[in-house]
Amino acid sequence: MVALKDIAARCGVSVATVSKALNQQQDISEETRERIARVAREMGYTVNAAARTLKTNRTDNIGLIFEDLQSSGFMHEYFAATLNSFRSYLQHARFRQVDGVALICTDYHDPMVQELVFSDIPTITLDHAFNNRIAVLSDNMNGLASLVKYVYSRGHRRIAYIHGGSTAVTESRLTGFYRACEELNLRVPKEYILSCEYHEPISCYAATKRVLTLPVRPTCVLFSDDYSYIGGLNAITDAGLRVPDDISVVGYDGIHLAKMLSPRLTTWQQNTEDLGRIAASRLIEKIEHPLTTPSEHIVVKGRLLEGETVADLNTAADRPEKDAT
């Protein structure tokens, strides 16, 4: 581990000067402070949090008391967004002297994230797999394939998919979609595949509007996630159409909101409880037994929540005649 004396020797200054520079004290020149900070970064210096705590009587950590009377926990839309402001970036892992890090919903292509993942700090990723690292993955491929097969069983042959942005999750779901369509001998026009941002109703509204104006409209639309579907539903309503009488829809995630909508949304529920529990247990195992814990990829299955938004086109009465081919 790099010490202050090592930085002092490299810069040709005293240990006291290095300490002042790294603690942003003002009784040294800006030029000296910047030069010492640059050298410290190049040498990979990290602050000893325990020593700083003894000196300053501060840990630089914050506590959070969270009580949710609705029992929705951190999945609550409002609190999930609020908590993002409290999270420190993963580059501070060494400063915090954490034993391990779980990476959830981050930019896995960020060089700083990859540097952390391939460091000596035990890590675990959710819904993204690195080679030779532990990952816990939702079964996105089979989840999407199961939705396609369910919609097919209800008589639908023109199925559109508005997927999320470019991520490993999206790639898996698209693979599941195309595999199921191929297995069922379904032809999917390229116009039926559109993109929107995950968890973003506004972009989903625009994509849904494009689908609804196609010369041959799909009978069912699969959406990237339940929350984005709100935008899709608004587009459907603005077009003077009704779900599922005029067009059927399917979501993804199985969030609490999907059960509250009317008609109740048909969706694929991810097993978030198992995802979190397994991720935590594997990370603890890696911390306690770093040499014997395998770097495996664990897939967690979900389940279909059959709602009221997919019409049964196997009966003539439910088949939309104006869209018949």
Strand order of the largest sheet: 1-2-3-9
Global geometry: elongated
Strand percentage lies at: 5-15%
Give the termini separation.
70 Å
Mean of the pLDDT scores?
A: 84
Notes on the structure:
- The chain has 13 helices and 10 strands.
- The protein has 325 residues and is an alpha/beta fold.
- Strands 1-2-3-9 form a 4-stranded parallel sheet, with helices on one face. It has a 4-stranded parallel sheet with strand order 5-4-6-7, sandwiched between helices. A two-stranded antiparallel sheet has the order 8-10.
- The N and C termini lie far apart (70 Å).
- The relative contact order is 0.10.
- Mean pLDDT is 84; it is low at 59-67 and 321-325.
What's the topology here?
Elements (H helix, E strand, L loop, with lengths): L3 H8 L3 H8 L7 H13 L6 H8 L20 H7 L9 H4 L4 E3 L7 H7 L5 E4 L7 E5 L1 H14 L5 E5 L4 H16 L9 E3 L5 H12 L7 E4 L5 H10 L9 E3 L5 H5 L6 E3 L2 H17 L8 E4 L2 E3 L20
Parallel strand pairs: 1-2, 2-3, 3-9, 4-5, 4-6, 6-7
Antiparallel strand pairs: 8-10
Helix pairs in contact: 1-2, 1-3, 2-3, 8-9, 10-11
Brief sketch in words of this structure:
This protein has 325 residues and is α/β, with parallel strands linked by helices.
